[in-house]
Structure formats: structure tokens, C-alpha cells
Amino acid sequence: MRRRFFLTTMLSTGAARAAAALDFPYGSSHIFAVYRKGELIGHHALRFRHEDGKQYVATSLDLAVKALGVTLFRYNYRCHEVWEGSTFLRLESEANDNGTKYAVKAEHSASAVAVDRLEPAASSPGGQESVQPATEVRDKLPAGILPSTHWNRLQVEQSALLNTQYGTISKIKVSVVGQEAVKTVTHTLTATRYDYTGDLRFSQWFDDRNRWVKASFPAPDGSIIDYILQE
Known about the structure:
Elements: H1 2-23, E1 29-36, E2 39-51, E3 54-67, E4 70-84, E5 87-97, E6 100-108, E7 112-119, E8 135-142, E9 146-147, E10 160-162, E11 169-183, E12 188-198, E13 202-207, E14 212-218, E15 224-229
Parallel strand pairs: 9-10
Antiparallel strand pairs: 1-2, 1-15, 2-3, 3-4, 4-5, 5-6, 6-7, 7-8, 10-11, 11-12, 12-13, 13-14, 14-15
């Protein structure tokens, strides 16, 4: 009897894990080409791995804006997340925003999300780099908060997100615009558009499989950044 119960439990647990893996809408990778004014400026790549009932997500984003062969702006970002089903467990991220460096570590517990972040020193007058070191800050955020990594459709149901570059709370309002045609590299698909306002301002599209398939947002200079899915 005990053996039968053990086998039944193992089989049902394995089936649940397999179902969770099958329900996940992404394959092993999901890549966007990033454009500004019709010019390719970089790529945003997601890598997914399912192991031991957990989902591991690695994000890399590299952008460079150039003029006459000179790099005017550069942005590099790396993030590693761990999820269990729809539950966020932890992440680590690093960003270099045109020379300003950020680092974030966040870990979920039953009562809070503990965040350790590196807060860059403010620039001195005239734009000179500060000689003061960056500050390490520890915060506790609400336990139910989700990270702002764009692949997860659950974020459109939130009013606040953990900003994975800064390690702070970004308050948002998300409006459903409706279904639109989205062009990828090889075909056109139908997706629902969501517009974000508040601390984060951009538009994002998810298809009927809950995959992130497009993004668009204004750059600081007013130009529009567009994400084109490479499939």
C-alpha cells in the first residue's frame, strides 16, 4: 500500500511539473531586434530553462546609438531570474547606462521581497563624474511585487513593479488598448496592446499564447524605440 501511494504521488507530481513546463508559452529563446529611427541599434534576448520545477530566465540587452562612426550612447543590461510557476523567487541584475552602473539583488520570502541595490553617486555640477562611491542600499518591498522584466504577462495586472535596473518600486497604470496586427521578421500575428503610464511609459503587445511579441517607447531625445520579434 505504501509503495502504491508513493508511486502514485511521484507520478502525479511529475505530471504536474510536466504540465507546468508545457503551459509555459516560450521556447528556449526569444529575441528582439531593437530599432531607432529605422536603424538597428541592438538586441534584447531572453533565454529560458526549466529545471527541477523552476523556471530560469536570463535576459541580455545591448544597445548602441552611433553617429558618423562615434558612439553617442551605450546601454548594457543583464538579469537572471528564478521562478516557481507564477511565483517570483529571486533575481540578480546589472546595468551600465552610458557609464552609470547599477546592480540589484532581490529575493522573495513569505512576508517581503528583500532588495539589495547599488545606488550610483550623483554627478557633480557641470556633468563631471563624482568622486564619491556608489551607495549600497537594502530595502524590503511588498511580498507580492513582480519584477519589471517584460516577458511576463502577469505584470499588466499590477499597479507597481520592482524596477530591475534601479531596485526601486515603479508605480504604473496599465490600459488595455485592444488587439492589433504585429509584424515579426517572418509573419504577422494578432496581439493585445497594453499602454503603461506612471513611472514607466511604454507600449507592449502580448499574443494569444501570452508571449511578449512587441514593445515601443520614447527615448530621452523623443525618438521612438521599436522592438521587432526575430521569428
